[in-house]
Design brief:
Elements: H1 4-11, E1 32-33, H2 52-61, H3 70-78, H4 80-95, H5 100-108, E2 116-117, E3 122-123, E4 136-139, E5 142-144, H6 147-157, E6 164-168, H7 174-180, E7 185-190, H8 193-199, E8 211-215, E9 229-234, H9 243-247, E10 249-259, E11 268-274, E12 280-287
Parallel strand pairs: 6-7, 6-9, 7-8, 9-10
Antiparallel strand pairs: 1-8, 2-3, 4-5, 10-11, 11-12
Helix pairs in contact: 4-6
Length: 302
């Protein structure tokens, strides 16, 4: 049984990077990739000093407004060390050991850069590295998940440097960015067109060249990627696991998905694996509460 702190952290995962409201008129298998409207160069690279000037320029190149004073920026940077200690302690309690690659990825990325409400066109970076981790709404019914939950999901996926990863639910872009610091390539699908179009612009200013995004129904995955995926991470509750995603999972790969009914208790985080013969195995990880995955998955299963 998880501690009360663990339960709070995972209930916070309910506001993950998927949608809260359904989006009509999506093509069944078609989707739109976004490669245009990106800056020609990066203004920063992971591991480099993250300054107020770098923040301002990266935000500008990603097409977003900056409305916080430098004093607030410095205050939130001072909180990062405490947040990192919380992440390391949490992973140690949950797994016995914190994956150093996961910790490094968190240290590398400026989480404040991702704290932006796309519907209201307003940053909320001043709240970054909050002592009590919580999800933050980013508009269109989507959210930036709490940092403990994202750390847990990342380590549960067991990412490796040579992996190719598929994420269902781009949301703020933080999870795909986090994985990109560990694996070879990340592909991410977002079902909300206005959100997906805007978030596609945030990677280039940070030099994250190995993240590929598009708008579409995550039920269908990204079948054009030859060879499939070593990791598939679904960040919203599905009624059942999509057979299309299972097809795209490589042998010995890991598909992580919360399964359960929308807005009801009893959702469970599952880990699916595939052996050399193509046979799929699964095990329950823990009880969770996520907002629902939308699109094809919401139709009655035939």
């Amino acid at each position: 049984m998880a501690s009360s702190h663990s339960r709070r952290a995972f209930f916070a995962l309910a506001l993950s990077c998927c949608v809260l409201l359904s989006v009509p008129a999506l093509a069944r298998a078609a989707s739109v990739a976004f490669a245009a409207a990106t800056p020609s160069r990066s203004v920063w690279s992971p591991g480099s000093p993250w300054t107020f000037r770098a923040y301002q320029e990266a935000m500008r190149q990603s097409g977003r407004q900056v409305q916080i004073p430098e004093k607030n920026f410095q205050e939130m940077q001072a909180r990062k060390a405490t947040a990192m200690a919380s992440i390391e302690h949490y992973l140690q309690r949950r797994f016995g050991k914190a994956d150093p690659n996961v910790l490094r990825a968190f240290r590398d990325l400026p989480r404040d850069y991702y704290q932006y409400d796309y519907q209201r066109r307003k940053p909320f970076a001043s709240n970054c590295y909050e002592p009590e981790p919580k999800p933050w709404a980013i508009g269109y019914g989507s959210a930036l998940s709490d940092y403990l939950g994202q750390a847990y999901m990342t380590q549960l996926a067991k990412p490796r440097p040579g992996d190719t990863v598929l994420e269902i639910g781009t949301g703020s872009g933080f999870q795909s960015s986090l994985l990109s610091r560990i694996v070879k390539q990340v592909y991410s699908v977002e079902i909300i067109k206005p959100l997906g179009a805007e978030v596609a612009k945030i990677y280039k200013p940070l030099g994250l060249d190995n993240v590929h995004t598009r708008v579409g129904d995550g039920y269908y995955g990204w079948p054009e990627v030859k060879g499939g995926f070593d990791i598939i991470m679904v960040t919203c509750a599905a009624r059942y696991v999509s057979p299309e995603l299972l097809k795209q999972l490589k042998p010995h790969g890991r598909l992580i998905v919360p399964i359960g009914q929308p807005f009801r208790k009893g959702q469970v985080l599952y880990v699916f694996t595939k052996d050399n013969t193509g046979r799929v195995h699964s095990h329950k990880d823990m009880g969770v509460f996520f907002i629902p995955m939308t699109g094809k998955i919401m139709e009655n299963k035939s």
